[in-house]
User: Fold this.
Amino acid sequence: MVDEYHKFVVEINGEEYEFSLEAHDGDYYLSIDDLGGLADMVPLHREQYDWIKPQIDKIRGVKQTWITRWHIQTESALKKVKRILLKSGYLAF
Assistant:
């Protein structure tokens, strides 16, 4: 069950992309869309992945659990991830 769910919209090279931030039992996860099915390890939008990956890799307390999903393990890391998303975008809901 999802405790909390937010959608961020970020502009990357003139295009808007969605990032999902959700909490499950107090643990936060950031995800981007993938191709689905047998291609669920391929990001739907490569430029979105290429934009977030180097930024999120620098944050202590974030662990990539799947190609398109990251576990945000600390409150400090959560604040940094939100800051990155809000710097180039906005909270849709």
Remarks:
- DSSP finds two helices and six strands in the chain.
